[in-house]
Amino acid sequence: MRTVSLRAYLLVLVAIPLLLLLLAETVVSYLVGMHTANQVFDRWLLDSAHSIAQEVRVDEDGLRFIAAADAVAMFEWDDMDDTYFEIRDAGGHLIAGDLPQVIPADLSRLREGPVFETLRIDGELTRAVTLLNNPGADDEIVVQVAETLNKRRGMTTEVLSLVAMKKTLLIAGAMIAVAVAITRGMRPLQRLADELARRSPRDLTPLSEDNAPREVRTLIENTNGLLGRINHMLGLHEAFVGNIAHQIRTPLAGIKLQAQLALRETDPAAVRRSLAQIARAADHMTHVNSQLLKLARAEIAFDRGPQAAATDLVALVEACREEFDAAARARDITLAAEMPAEAIDIEGDPALLHEMLRNLVENAIVYGSRHGHVWIRVEGEAHAPRLVVEDDGRGIPPEHRPQIFDHFYRPPNSPGEGCGLGLPIVREIARAHGGDVRLEDRAAGPGIRFVVEFPPRPPRHGAPAHASHPLAPAMERQLAADGQ
Questions:
Q1: Which tens digits make up the pLDDT trace of 45-92?
Q2: How many CA atoms lie less than 13 Å away from 20 in the CB half-sphere?
Q3: pLDDT, tens digit (0-9, with 9 covering 90-100), for 365-408
Q4: Which of 171, 180, 123 is nearest to 148 (CA)?
Q5: How far apart are CA 384 and CA 345, in angstroms?
Q6: What burial class does residue 353 get, using C-beta atoms within 10 Å of its C-beta: 0-12 exposed, 13-18 middle, 19+ buried?
Q7: CA distance 204 to 193
């Protein structure tokens, strides 16, 4: 698609209504000018009729036209138009004149004033005036004068030419003024574009807002906001790379140390112990790598938004309960799921939501008490649901709770071999879906509960029925990726 210049676009936006207004004003000016010109010509025609009427006298023979032939010839002469006249008495008898066509005369109407008409005489448009001279007297006469419209057409052309020339110059001047104004008005945008073009890709400092118009200031503020977000993303990227280096450095050092010890040992049992330590360190590195990749996916979803699809929370909880049932039994933990019978849909990424819930459930099983209980619940209304994972273990001391969602943070004396990324992953996924996660004490006794709240949405009616586990394909892909 061809790119349209903003300057040209603005010029067109201004020019079109301006041209329409000037066109309307031109038409109005032309009509007013022609009305005035016609009034002048009609006045001349009426004066001619009065002049002809003065040449009629009353004598013993009745009404008589006394104008000389030379005067009549001079009256009728015109180098552009044909002029006709006719004089009749009140009874309609012709006194003088050679009007080719008889114009009906309504005496009652003529007593109110002269009558102007446009008619055709010998196939040509003609303007005529009829007046009643000396109404009610003995020398009452009807005078008719007609004239072709050549001079009027010439005047029309001249008026139209003058108006068109004047308006054309006015339009040209107005467009030049508008173009100059648009060009000057766009200079702040051009300066902003030049400044961005000159910048290094590494320069993410905010743009200056000095002397910027209000509209451009808004653009600069939004651009600065974008630069700030890019800078934040680069910071996260650097921190992510640093975290990877930090988390991998220690296991690699351990692997190297154990390998060196194994090389020095001659006792097969000692070599096997070193190899076992190397395997555990490799497993820990694999787990850290998997968690870091999950955290990266969650952070990307938070910044770009998840791939939204209809996700049934009821099916999600049921699938997660089945997945961890064996792990819970291994620690003699009762894993229970409490949820409504009907499906509860939210818009979200099924794989990310499954990863969020499985992290919470896995933490509850690992850090909960043996012979204890873990509950997975779907609470709240259908249009504002909550996911809750609750256990009756020893909980988390209050002094450690503010840092519990920080990367790589683990409370002292925490069991297991976690890396402190499970809960940060949960928080990033919840925020990516417009919600959040919070930590609460259990109301019914010792332990803690994690509550994931989703943003409310308008309730839907007539939701379609769901299969038993619509998330299974996404979960299988996720489990396969985690196992690699």
A1: 899 888 888 888 877 777 878 777 777 777 777 788 888 888 888 788
A2: 5
A3: 888 888 899 999 988 787 788 899 999 888 888 888 888 888 77
A4: 123
A5: 10
A6: buried
A7: 15
The CATH superfamily label for domain 305-483 reads: Histidine kinase-like ATPase, C-terminal domain (3.30.565.10)
State the pTM of this model.
0.49
Radius of gyration of the chain (CA): 50
Q: Architecture of 214-288 per CATH?
A: Orthogonal Bundle (1.10)
The CA-to-CA distance between both ends of the chain, in Å, stands at 45
Architecture per CATH, domain 6-157, reads as: 2-Layer Sandwich (3.30)
Residue given tokens 């339009």 in the structure block: 171
Q: What token pair was written down for 333?
A: 């933990």
- Do 78 and 66 touch, CB atoms closer than 8 A? no
Query: What SS3 string covers 58-117?
Result: EECCEEEECCCHHHHHHHHCCCCCCEEEEEEECCCCEEEECCCCCCCCCHHHHCCCCEEE
* Spatial contact of 310 and 347, defined as CB atoms under 8 Å apart: yes
Domain with CATH 3.30.450 in the chain: 6-157
Distance, CA of 444 to CA of 377 (rounded, Å) = 15
Helix (H/G/I), strand (E/B), else coil: 130: strand
User: Residue 478 in contact with residue 353, Cβ under 8 Å?
Assistant: no
